[in-house]
Automatic annotation (TrEMBL), chain A:
InterPro entries xrefs: AAA+_ATPase (IPR003593), ABC_transporter-like_ATP-bd (IPR003439), ABC_transporter-like_CS (IPR017871), CBS_dom (IPR000644), CBS_dom_sf (IPR046342), Gly-betaine_transp_ATP-bd (IPR005892), P-loop_NTPase (IPR027417)
Subunit relationships: The complex is probably composed of two ATP-binding proteins, two transmembrane proteins and a solute-binding protein.
Keywords recorded for this protein, A-Z: ATP-binding, CBS domain, Cell inner membrane, Cell membrane, Membrane, Nucleotide-binding, Repeat, Transport
Name of the protein in question: Quaternary amine transport ATP-binding protein
Molecular function as annotated in GO: ABC-type quaternary ammonium compound transporting activity; ATP binding; ATP hydrolysis activity
Membrane topology term: Peripheral membrane protein
GO cellular component, one term: plasma membrane
Subcellular location field: Cell inner membrane
ABC transporter domain span: 2-239
Species this protein is from: Ferruginivarius sediminum
Catalytic activities: a quaternary ammonium(out) + ATP + H2O = a quaternary ammonium(in) + ADP + phosphate + H(+)
PROSITE patterns membership: ABC_TRANSPORTER_1, ABC_TRANSPORTER_2, CBS
GO biological process, one term: amino acid transport
Pfam short name (any one): ABC_tran
Automatic annotation (TrEMBL), chain B:
Pfam families: BPD_transp_1
Annotated organism of origin: Ferruginivarius sediminum
Compartment(s) of residence: Cell membrane
Protein name stated in the entry: ABC transporter permease
Membrane-crossing segments per the record: 12-38, 50-71, 92-119, 162-187, 208-234
CDD domains linked to this entry: TM_PBP2
Lineage: Bacteria, Pseudomonadati, Pseudomonadota, Alphaproteobacteria, Rhodospirillales
Record InterPro entries: ABC_transp_perm/SBD, MetI-like, MetI-like_sf
Keyword Kinase on entry: no
Entry similarity comment: Belongs to the binding-protein-dependent transport system permease family.
Gene Ontology BP, a term: transmembrane transport
Domain ABC transmembrane type-1 intervals: 45-226
């Protein structure tokens, strides 16, 4: 857990006092990833560096696991906080293994423990064991940042500080590393402060987002809350005019899908199908095979003739998995020019349907809920 | 593995040139003349090496710590002015340094070593200073952020990363030192300068070359040896040669 109380930072410059950080208060619960977000010069990096005391604070307190960071010896404190920076800063004179083991070595681990730790970590970030004996200059940028990540995690610190760790990586590799990192975080459950200026990255990675402006914390909350209810025009502008589209990334299809939809099996007659369609007031019906997988679809025009559903059904052009987010669903609707999709679970079994209407209703309803919560 | 600064072409040119010089020397009857001075060469060469060894050793012993000292945070304000003073030392002509040294310390080995020491100091201090300051700030920040002490940062990060530049400075200093050491003869410091200057005064080309050629060879060989040290001693990650 990280708790920041009344944090202040004032720099003395030639043009007088600059208040880089003013009255910042927030708390990141154990195991959560909090993004410090904002334009450059907003105080987010300064705030981060005050946690491991790379920048001394003017006033205020920072607690890690309920212990005041001032009580720690400064070197001891830093050895128990992982630190990953945008420029990576791998030590060129050391091999990858030596780089990773810098903190374990200082913590007095045995040679064997150090080696095992390095091997494990490299494995975790999907790098080959052979990189261990290489030097940083022999690695690509993406590989270097993965090693940087390993180095930050090497001492198994409860808290991790990351200063735009993926900022210098090309967009394709960045997506991959973000995904890998999220997977790792799901297991590791570190408490993380993560500086970013990229709203998409923040929405994707953060459990919480803290938006900064001119040294002040403007809004602190979950990504969905921020997107649905920006507190002022600055936040609204910063999260972007397409913020509802960004919210769709946060909501799983399983949360928005309609489960009570009529279905028929391939062996049912078209009469049965027609009755079900009429009852539900729908304009189509999904045909399932014996295992409950969607096999095809019948539209109203098909229902006038006689015979079994299986024979008259049109094949389904696409389905979508319920664990995907709403953005994927909408993107697929655009691709196939349809206003609804059959949703399947991990095994390919039909679980319901999702449509434009259900998505817009879902977004609207959750926004209303948030407003009520905000008012209370 | 290719050795530093010895491409195949360079090597062939070197040996070819050496052979041509040898042939020329033998043809003009200079070689026997030079060989005549062999006992002098041996004795004075040892003196020469002593002058160089002591003055360069002291210059390294003082220059490296001084260079490091100038990079420490509390020196940030004054370091540049100190560097200016050290730079000034290099702009004074060698002979003037020798003369100044003699006027204070008299004649003999000690003033000669002192003058050579002053002259070797600058490249070592400057390169140590620049090498450490050129360690990228990101590396510094990472090291501090991971909880390294200032001592650990110096020994494990700054010095290894500055090593290549530092050794380059030491090479320059030692080679200049060997080439300057003959002047020591002028203030009674001995060394191969004795053969060179006496040879010049007597219009005795053989005698002069008996001093000049070993001096030049000494510079080449020592530079090569220092190159070897740099090649094998500097970690691969920060060694541009491999």
């Amino acid at each position: 857990m990280i708790r920041v109380e009344d944090l202040q930072k004032t720099f003395q410059t030639e043009r007088g006092e600059v208040r880089a950080v003013q009255d910042v208060n927030f708390e990141v619960p154990e195991g959560e990833l909090c993004i410090l977000l904002g334009p450059s010069g907003c105080g987010k990096t300064t705030t981060l560096k005050m946690v491991n005391r790379l920048i001394p604070r003017t006033s205020g307190k920072i607690y890690i696991n309920e212990r005041d960071t001032d009580e720690y010896d400064i070197v001891e404190l830093r050895r128990h906080i992982g630190y990953v920076i945008q420029q990576i800063g791998l030590f060129p004179n050391m091999t990858v293994e030596e780089n990773i083991c810098v903190v374990p070595k200082m913590l007095g681990w045995s040679k064997k423990q150090q080696h095992e730790r390095a091997a494990d970590l490299v494995n975790m970030v999907a790098l080959d064991q052979s990189v261990l004996s290489r030097y940083p200059k022999e690695l690509s940028g993406g590989q270097q940042q993965r090693v940087g990540l390993c180095r930050g995690l090497a001492g198994d610190p409860p808290v991790l500080l990351m200063d735009e760790p993926f900022g210098a990586i090309d967009p394709i590799n960045r997506e991959i590393i973000q995904d890998e990192f999220l997977k790792m975080q799901a297991d590791l459950k570190k408490t993380i402060l993560f500086v970013s200026h990229d709203i998409d990255e923040a929405v994707k990675m953060g459990d919480k987002i803290a938006i900064f402006r001119d040294g002040k914390l403007v809004q602190f909350g979950t990504p969905d809350n921020l997107l649905a209810h920006p507190v002022n025009d600055f936040v609204a502008d910063f999260v972007g005019g397409d913020r509802e589209l960004k919210r769709m990334r946060l909501i799983k299809i399983s949360e928005a899908l309609k489960r009570e939809v009529p279905t028929v099996s391939a062996t049912d007659t078209l009469d049965t199908a027609a009755k079900k369609v009429e009852q539900a007031g729908a304009n189509h019906i999904v045909v399932l095979d014996d295992d409950g997988r969607p096999e095809g679809v019948l539209t109203q025009g098909d229902l006038d003739s006689k015979g079994s559903c299986g024979d008259s059904a049109h094949p389904l052009r696409t389905t979508v998995q319920s664990i995907k987010d709403l953005r994927t669903a909408v993107s697929r609707m655009f691709t196939y020019n349809t206003d609804w999709l059959a949703v399947v679970d991990d095994d390919g079994k039909f679980v319901g349907e999702i449509s434009y209407r259900s998505i817009t209703e879902m977004l609207h309803a959750s926004r209303k809920r948030g407003e009520k919560k905000g008012a209370a | 593995m290719a050795l530093p600064a010895t491409g195949r072409v360079g090597r062939i040119a070197f040996y070819g040139g050496l052979f041509a010089l040898g042939a020329l020397a033998q043809g003009s009857g200079l070689l026997p003349e030079i060989a005549y001075y062999w006992p002098d060469i041996e004795y004075l060469g040892r003196e020469h090496l002593f002058l160089v060894g002591v003055s360069a050793g002291l210059a390294i012993g003082v220059g490296v710590p001084l260079g490091v000292f100038l990079t420490r945070p509390f020196m940030r304000g004054t370091a540049e002015s100190v560097m200016q003073v050290v730079n000034l030392g290099q702009t004074i002509p060698t002979l003037a340094v020798l003369a100044l040294s003699m006027s204070v310390l008299g004649i003999g080995v000690v003033p000669a070593i002192f003058a050579l020491w002053v002259y070797s100091l600058l490249p070592i201090v400057r390169n140590t200073y620049a090498g450490i300051l050129n360690v990228p700030p990101a590396i510094h920040e990472a090291a501090r952020g991971m909880g390294m002490t200032n001592n650990q940062i110096l020994w494990r990060i700054e010095l290894p990363n500055a090593l290549y530049v530092m050794i380059a400075g030491i090479r320059t200093a030692v080679v200049i030192n060997i080439g300057t050491a003959p002047l020591a003869f002028l203030i009674g410091g001995g060394g191969l300068g004795q053969l060179i200057f006496t040879g010049i005064d007597l219009f005795n080309t053989g005698m002069m070359l008996a001093g000049a050629i070993p001096t030049a060879l000494m510079a080449v060989v020592v530079d090569f040896l220092l190159g070897l040290i740099a090649f094998y001693f500097i970690p691969r990650g920060v060694n541009p040669l491999r």
